[in-house]
Design goal:
The complex is a heterotrimer. Chain A is mainly α. Chain A contains 17 helices and 3 strands. Chain A has a 3-stranded antiparallel β-sheet. The N and C termini of chain A lie far apart (61 Å). In chain B, helix 7 packs parallel to helix 8. Classes of the chains: A mainly alpha, B alpha/beta, C mainly alpha. At the A-C interface, helix 1, helix 9, helix 10, helix 11 and helix 12 of A face helix 1, helix 3, helix 4, helix 5 and helix 6 of C.
Chain lengths: 402, 271, 313
């Protein structure tokens, strides 16, 4: 009897241990999932305000003489101050002017250039509010002295709208004007270079290693090399880019060309490994069939095996590109980290990319840049999400069961 | 003279071979797979315009030898061959022979139907295209239709030539593969257990087809089914442990084998 | 054969010489493309070695390897690696302490307990986490995790640096969880089902089977996964650049600010640089150290995996 009860209590202990072990596993997964969820929620919560902006429709009287002299800045300032007759002291006027972004000048100039007949009349300028006023209205960071902004909202219609300029503007020192266009174009150019080179070299290497390479020590050496390269820290590729591409070959610094070169080497192992897996998945009977009717090895591979492996290769390439798109560290080394307000127009011009833009903005002291950073992260994650969805779609659409 | 080529001592002359011209011949062929000695000192003469079948227990080397006849073994790095194999008296392993070119003369049909995942038309057209056998598109179309007709498939697929070949039934796929092989005008067609993946009705159709094709081709077929060998072939070779035990008139092999091992195999004592 | 003209094998000549020459060229091109990987490795070696040699002409290798002070901008500048190694090690240890249990338990749960449906949901979650760019994790570490740890620490009376090693290490650990879990998952799945069946048939509980049979069998593979994770942690840049400090303190206090090899490489090379200054060259010497550390770890991991595979096939 005692023996039985001892065994029963042992069994109870073992059952408890089993349940505990299982709970550890579930907890680990729950924690990881929660981390990801919290990360995304945190970024979204910080980032959404950057997609909205506040604008105000301001009547501006165009004095022909001043317009002719090009003093649009003065015209806009006077128009603003005209709305605030109570602001008399220098500091009050400064506080009022600080509510507005500085793009009124160019807006008025552009309207006038389009229609010179407006001179002498009163036009309406759609002025953007400054970052501090914007944050106050969004309730994120109330201004210490709210008199000016309160007066503004009472006098003029303030509208809240989607901030298209976040996508159509380049980088700017003014938080409310800063946008991602330059970084997005820079990323596009850089990734295009990386994709082009990575795909050509990666697929060629995969075809050689999987289909034609003799089994010898040199082939082994190449394979070991590729595996090791896949695990080399990305910042080391930056050092390679700096020492080789910039200093030895003298390629243009900060350019998408060099960025793309570096990233193509970085994703090369990924593409080679994915492409080899895709080639391996094509059944050998297809190659044999081609050889059987007298196709050469190369004809068999290029006519039959490679086209059939293409969806798999593309899936791998997209995932490799997603990695390149999110990569930051090596690009810091080759100078893609400078403040660049212009949108790059070619692969040899100075540019920055989206992740580097995020890094740059995250370092800035203005509060408005914090939400811009988070919003840029949302854009980055959205692009990566789309790329992954495309890869999954391709995989499902073209997956072949043999 | 050396009309039958068996390693067994004192083979009696086989009448049927004397009547048929030699198409392919092997002399003292040895094949190694890595450490494995798969074919041991094998000699054989294969006649034209007849079906020769290779039978024997699995692992006896019959498929390995078949693949040596169009140098498909070249694609296996660990495979080494010595000895001579000739086609119309010319050494197929000669320095001046491109295996690719050889395979356009010696076609092959595989165990599992392996159509390219392309349209029926493209499957058949592929060979003529890469070998530049046709001058124009109409030429090519004619060749495809002719090959499909010879393979007895045309009537079944004439309305869907541009649909994927992989959509056909197993038996149709295999006939498509035969049409694909015929389309490059081979002289010899090798078939490696062409019916092992098919149902009996499809098998019957393929066998019928093989019987028709022998009017124009030298056909070599590897089969695991003795009944099939008896039905389709005029000559039968029995392989055992990498050696050719006996080769001769199919009727003789099945009714009066000379070697006790052949006797044992066909009566089902091993295999 | 009525219409076609048969050339006949015996009569055929080698008409394919042109094609063979062309294919020879194609083959060489393909081989050259495979060589790009080798060239990259050589290029990396050349880049870091060449500049490092120049650096070691100015700073003695001994002072570099054993110096306990790192201040490249100080006067006189000091290039002692020890505080950076300590900082890298500290953050890596924190990351591993986070990632190993989470990753391993996740893998065990996914492969041994989870229903296929749950697996289908959770695997993409882990893949998503693996796909989050490190600059995003760095932002999260610097702006959310670090302030939180600082507040929590202050609340219980601890002195926490605003850029604590703990914040960077924790977030880096979360980054590594998918790596460990996916590698371990593969390895655990490769353990033959017959081993599990044998254990379960003797009346062992699933957890006993995992602990006594599956894990010991998978141990070399899991060890190699952890080694790869260490290599990833050492080489990770953005999280530490954004969330760890620049001050190279020689300390093992996880609440203090430390600096790492990668942070220093990034800092020394960002912005305007002259190529002859010891400050810039030091980055390449650090790169050399980093390259050899990660290379050694990768080779060790690959060896382990290879040995393990031979064991089972």
């Amino acid at each position: 009897m005692t023996d039985l009860s001892a065994r029963n209590s042992l069994l109870a202990r073992r059952r408890a241990a089993e349940a505990r072990f299982r709970r550890y596993g579930a907890a680990a997964l729950a924690l990881t999932t929660l981390f990801l969820a919290f990360l995304l929620w945190d970024v979204a919560a910080k980032g959404w305000p950057a997609f909205l902006e506040h604008r105000v429709a301001l009547p501006v009287a165009i004095d022909p003489a001043r317009a002719a002299a090009g003093d649009f800045d003065g015209l806009v300032k006077d128009a603003i101050l005209a709305q605030f007759p109570e602001a008399q002291s220098r500091s009050q006027r400064k506080a009022v002017l600080a509510l507005f972004s500085r793009d009124g000048e160019t807006q008025v100039a552009r309207q006038l250039a389009a229609d010179p007949g407006l001179s002498g009349k009163t036009i309406t300028a759609d002025l953007l509010l400054s970052d501090t006023a914007d944050l106050h209205l969004k309730g994120i960071a109330p201004l210490a002295d709210a008199t000016a902004i309160t007066a503004l909202t009472e006098k003029l219609p303030v509208t809240r709208a989607f901030a298209w300029r976040f996508f159509s503007n380049g980088d700017s020192r003014e938080a409310e004007q800063a946008g991602l266009r330059g970084a997005l174009i820079g990323s596009l150019l850089t990734v295009a270079v990386a994709l082009g080179l990575g795909l050509v070299f990666g697929v060629a290497a995969a075809v050689y290693l999987e289909e034609f390479a003799p089994k010898n020590r040199f082939t082994d050496f190449i394979e070991v090399n590729i595996n090791n390269l896949a695990a080399v820290p990305s910042i080391i590729f930056g050092l390679l880019g700096l020492a080789m591409f910039l200093n030895v070959f003298g390629l243009p610094r900060s350019s998408p060309l060099v960025g793309g070169l570096v990233l193509s080497l970085l994703v090369l192992p990924t593409i080679i490994i994915a492409a080899r897996a895709a080639l391996k998945a094509v059944p050998p009977s297809i190659k044999e069939a081609a050889l059987g009717v007298g196709a050469s090895e190369q004809q068999a591979v290029f006519h039959h095996v490679l086209p059939l492996a293409l969806p798999g290769i593309l899936t791998g390439a997209i995932l490799g590109m997603a990695r390149a798109f999110g990569e930051t560290a090596p690009l810091l080394m080759i100078g893609m980290v400078a403040f660049i307000a212009d949108v790059p127009r070619g692969i040899t011009e100075a540019a920055t990319v989206l992740p580097v833009q995020i890094y740059l903005w995250s370092d800035l002291p203005e509060l408005a840049f914090r939400s811009k950073t988070a919003a840029a992260i949302l854009v980055l994650i959205a692009v990566l999400f789309a790329a992954n969805a495309l890869a999954i779609y391709l995989r499902n659409r073209f997956e072949r069961r043999w | 003279m050396n009309q039958i080529s068996s390693v067994q001592p004192a083979p009696a002359p086989v009448r049927i071979l004397a009547e048929r011209p030699e198409k392919m011949a092997a002399r003292g062929v040895n094949i190694h797979y890595g450490d494995k000695h798969a074919i041991k000192d094998l000699s054989i003469t294969i006649p034209d315009r007849a079906v020769s079948s290779f039978i024997g227990p699995s692992g006896c080397g019959k498929s390995t030898f078949l693949r040596a006849l169009n140098r498909m073994n070249d694609t296996i790095p660990s495979c080494r061959m010595t000895g001579d194999i000739t086609l119309d008296g010319r050494n197929i392993n000669g320095r001046d022979v491109d295996p690719v070119q050889l395979r356009s003369h010696v076609g092959m049909v595989f165990q599992k139907p392996n159509p390219f995942p392309k349209s029926i038309f493209e499957n058949v057209a592929y060979g003529p295209r890469i070998h530049g056998l046709t001058a124009s598109t109409t030429d090519l179309e004619e060749r495809v239709v002719e090959s499909l007709k010879k393979a007895g498939l045309f009537e079944e697929v004439k309305d869907r030539l541009h649909q994927p070949g992989t959509g056909l039934s197993g038996g149709q796929q295999q006939r498509l593969c035969i049409a694909r092989a015929i389309a490059v005008n081979p002289e010899v067609i090798l078939m490696d257990e062409p019916c092992s993946a098919l149902d009996p009705i499809a098998t019957a159709k393929i066998e019928e087809l093989i019987d028709e094709l022998r009017q124009n081709y030298c056909i070599v077929i590897v089969t695991h089914s003795m009944q099939q060998a008896a039905r389709v072939s005029q000559l039968t070779a029995f392989f055992h442990l990498g050696t050719l035990v006996e080769f001769g008139d199919t009727d003789k092999i099945f009714t009066a084998p000379r070697d006790p091992r052949t006797q044992d195999y066909i009566t089902g004592r091993f295999g | 054969m009525t219409t076609a003209t048969r050339t006949g094998f015996a009569a055929s000549t080698r008409s394919t010489a042109g094609r063979r020459r062309f294919e020879g060229v194609v083959r060489i091109i393909l081989l050259a493309c495979s060589g790009v990987a080798v060239a990259t490795t050589l290029g990396i070696l050349a880049s870091v070695l060449f500049e490092s040699v120049v650096f070691f002409r100015e700073v003695s290798p001994l002072a570099f390897l054993f110096g306990t002070q790192w201040s490249p901008t100080g006067s006189p500048p000091a290039f002692g690696l020890v505080p950076l190694l300590a900082g890298t090690l500290l953050i890596t240890l924190i990351a591993l302490a986070t990632a190993t249990p989470l990753g391993l338990f996740s893998a065990i749960y996914l492969s041994e307990y989870a229903s296929p449906r749950l697996r289908r949901v959770l695997k993409p979650v882990l893949e998503m986490l693996a796909g989050v760019p490190t600059v995003v994790l760095g932002f999260f570490a610097a702006l959310t995790v670090a302030p939180f740890i600082r507040q929590a620490g202050t609340a219980i009376g601890l002195d926490v640096a605003s850029e604590s090693a703990l914040a960077a290490g924790l977030v880096m650990g979360m980054m590594i969880v998918p790596l460990i879990s996916s590698l371990s998952d593969d390895i655990i799945n490769a353990v033959p089902q017959s081993l599990r069946d044998g254990s379960l048939a003797m009346g062992a509980t699933p957890s006993e089977t995992v602990k006594r049979v599956v894990l010991p069998a998978a141990l070399p593979g899991i060890a190699s996964a952890i080694i790869l994770a260490i290599s990833r942690a050492i080489g990770e840049t953005m999280i530490v650049v954004m969330a760890a400090g620049l001050a190279a303190n020689l300390t093992f206090n996880p609440l203090a600010a430390v600096s790492t090899i990668t942070v220093q490489i990034a800092t020394l090379l960002v912005g305007d640089q002259e190529f002859d200054s010891a400050k810039t060259l030091a980055a390449f010497a650090l790169g050399l150290v980093l390259f050899f550390f990660t290379l050694a770890l990768n080779i060790a991991a690959l060896r382990l995996v290879r040995k393990y595979r031979q064991h089972y096939d």
